[in-house]
Amino acid sequence: MKPTEMKLLNMLSNNDVTFFIPPYQRNYEWTEEQCEIFFNDIVKTHDQNINGHASEHFFGSITYFQTETPFGQPDQLVLIDGQQRITTTMLFLVALRDIMQDSKLKNFIDSKYLRNNNVSNANDEYKIKLKQVETDWAVYKHIILGEKLSDTEKNASVYKNYRYFKAQLQQYQKKGGHPEDLIDKGLNRFSVISIELNLDNKWENPQEIFESMNSIGKPLSLADLVRNYLLLGLDAPSQEKLYKEYWLPMERIIPGQISNYIRDFMQWHICSYLKKATEANHKELYHRFKEIFSGLKSATVLEKLAKYAPIYHWILQGGDTDCDEINYELNDIHTLHVTTAYSFLMGLLAKWQEGSFTDQEMAEILDAFRIYCMRRRLLTLTAAENKILPTLVDRIDELANSHDKRQKMFDILSNLESNARLPNDLELTRYLETANFYNYQYCKLVLTMIEEKITKNRPNISDKKLQIEHIMPQTLSESWKKELGPDYENIHQELVNTIGNLTLIRHNQELGNKSFAEKKNIYEHNAGLQIARSEITNQGTWNQAAIQHRTQWIIHYLLQNVLPIPDTMRKANNFTIKTKKKLSFKELGLIGETIHFINNPSITAIIKTDTEVKFEGKLWKLSPLTRELFRRLGKINKSESYQGSRYWEYDGQKIYQLM
Questions:
Q1: Residues 6+ apart with CB under 8 A from 214
Q2: Residues near 60 by beta carbon (within 8 Å), at least 6 away in sequence
Q3: Of 88, 46, 95, 114, which Cα lies nearest the Cα of 215?
Q4: Among residues 420, 406, 297, which one has the least CA distance to residue 360?
Q5: CB count, 10 Å around CB of 57?
Q6: 282-301 pLDDT tens trace
Q7: Structural Rg of the chain based on CA atoms
Q8: DSSP string, 280-348
């Protein structure tokens, strides 16, 4: 490792080298906020220097290693750390070039910093001094070469930040400043620590150094860390091949979601909960990723990730499969924001894709799950879902082997812990009788579901003309007070926002506090929705009794026809009581004990720590070890997913039963 202090522009002006951002690096992600800081640092450094205060600005470290190039070509420096800062600097320089009126200055910036004329290839794009990652390359190349960009390309961060710098420099110029001076007295005083790695030295492992870097810019995401882990140890041709074949298609099909996808993919494979992917725990999740997929080749893991990314796309989009019935269910689940179920849904849809479920069976399972989610959200219940729903992955094989898959799904859901319960009819009825349904997040969705069940046609929830109407208005007129009777104030306060006093209408006028007779006429002839007529237009007056009657009718219709569950569950508790917490090996007193692999009892392991066992001289988590043993036996399942505690026993009892 050779750290050298040098000026940033001296490094970039060296025509004996070109810079290469390898495919395992992240895309360019600096925002305008970070570019503003960078620009202000240039101006500040410039101002201090012209005012007689010798000033420099430290711009962090640039870490790279050198690769072999053909004789006569510049050395290629592969960036490990610093690509975001170098790209930003290049964008500033090209923006400066493009606002220059002086052709000599334009050519100077272009030839000294942006292109490398020592490259012998005649094609201009090979002379560009910085080679970007694939997703940014086309846009960056167009900017450097001064070529026209498409509207889509103008959404890229590299273009947005180039445009930002151009605007800032033009404004600086209008105020009487000389932008070229920002180079001489500003950017020219930016210093970096240049760190060249020696790949022949085992202590200078690029992967480990990449992981330990503290970037000045945005911290590395889980996707960044995983991509690096899977690609960095390979030779350049393999990196390029695997990146283009597997990683790049993932970025295109689920853009901006790869970190979340990897976390949900991990949950699917271990049938257990992991923390949500955030900046605070990306490294923690990354280390867990390495544990889960240890022993697998990079190509194998990348192939699996790419294979199931389209399924994740279906979930994110709320459909987009080739089956309308499945799309229908996924769309409602998506609308309900059940993100905690994505791992389970991935497992289900993967099984369907493999042929374990027919289209109808898959739709029935999803329908049962949708009803479960909708019933819980009616009560605003979401507690425990993040930890419990991922474990449903472990029940997918039971579903596949069951005769009545819809019933089996309900059986599974009705035997979860109490805080993840399937709400019964009694609990929902008691709540909905008095709940403020108007301010409920999914009020319009529920009412459209009822309309659909009545008419076989669901209104478009995003239709601006579709409105939630208070039958008894929010503000009472004198005629309404008379209609409600002497206790109108209490009746209004208690019932105005209840579900029985609400309906959907589609119209262009405000009904406000029109009389009930006037509203009935509009509901009957102009609203166009059956829910605006049902148990409303057959009423002679709209008072406490009428509202309570419709409340009971709509609750009954909702629970019986829109969100039905098996009759045996309508009044049952539909949950199990958790009696004990999961115990560790230490709490069970099993440290040092020998456990047996159920599929071949001659295979044993010794429990060494709370979470690890020793097998063939190496420490393993149970799940990766189980997967490895099934691979050796030639019996690996398609998902390569195993909950290890179910495949090992101690003293004749499965480990998961002991815990």
A1: none
A2: 82, 85, 192, 193, 215, 216
A3: 88
A4: 406
A5: 16
A6: 888 998 999 899 889 999 99
A7: 32
A8: TTHHHHHHHHHHHTTTS-HHHHHHHHHHHHHHHHHHHHT--SS-HHHHHHHHHHHHTT-GGGHHHHHHH
Exposure of 486 in the CB half-sphere (CA atoms within 13 A): 0
Task: State whether the Cα torsion 460-466-470-474 is positive or negative.
Answer: positive
**Assigned token pair, 155:** 């959404």
Cβ atoms of residues 269 and 639 within 8 Å: yes
Which tokens is 462 given? 């995003």
- pLDDT-derived band of residue 23, with 50, 70 and 90 as boundaries? confident
Q: Model's pTM, two decimal places?
A: 0.71
Average pLDDT over residues 329-358: 96
Q: Give the whole-angstrom CA distance, residue 641 versus residue 438.
A: 44
Q: What pLDDT digit, counting tens, does each position of 129-184 carry?
A: 888 887 888 899 999 999 999 998 999 999 999 999 999 999 999 998 899 899 98
The residue behind tokens 């605006």 is 532
Q: State the DSSP H helix or E strand holding residue 88, giving kind and residue range, or none if neither.
A: helix 83-99
Closest CA to 312 of 274, 287, 339: 339
Query: What DSSP string runs through 541-565?
Result: --SHHHHHHHHHHHHHHIIIIIS--
Amino acid, single-letter form, for residue 516 = F
Measured on CA atoms in the order 156, 158, 163, 165, is the torsion positive or negative? positive
Q: How far is CA 628 from CA 94, 297, 505, 611, in A?
A: 52, 12, 60, 17
CA distance 350 to 146: 46
Taken as a whole, the chain contains a residue count of 659
**Cα four-point dihedral sign 302, 308, 312, 317:** positive
Residue given tokens 């290629």 in the structure block: 76
- Within 26-140, strands assigned E span 57-67, 75-81, 130-131
pLDDT, residue 15, reads 80
Nearest to 457 by CA among 405, 524, 529: 529
Rounded-to-integer distance, Cα 361 and Cα 313, Å: 21
Q: β-pairing, 130-131 with 57-67?
A: unpaired
Instruction: Report the mean per-residue pLDDT for the chain.
Output: 88
Distance CA 225, CA 235 (A): 18
Q: Which of helix, strand or coil describes residue 226? A: helix
Whole-number pLDDT of residue 124: 62
pLDDT digits (tens, 9 = 90+) for 548-603: 999 999 999 999 999 999 999 999 999 987 655 566 787 777 888 889 888 888 89
Tokens representing 16 are 């004996």
CB 516 within 8 A of CB 483: yes
CB-count exposure of residue 104 (10 Å: 0-12, 13-18, 19+): exposed
* 207 pLDDT more than 60: no
Confidence of residue 209 (pLDDT cuts 50, 70, 90): low
What angle (nearest 5°) sits at the alpha carbon of residue 62, between those of residues 196 and 95?
A: 135
Side-chain half-sphere exposure of 357, counting CA atoms within 13 A: 26
For residue 647, CA distances in Å to 40, 271, 599, 626, 640 come to 60, 14, 7, 7, 14
379 touches 298 (CB < 8 A)? no
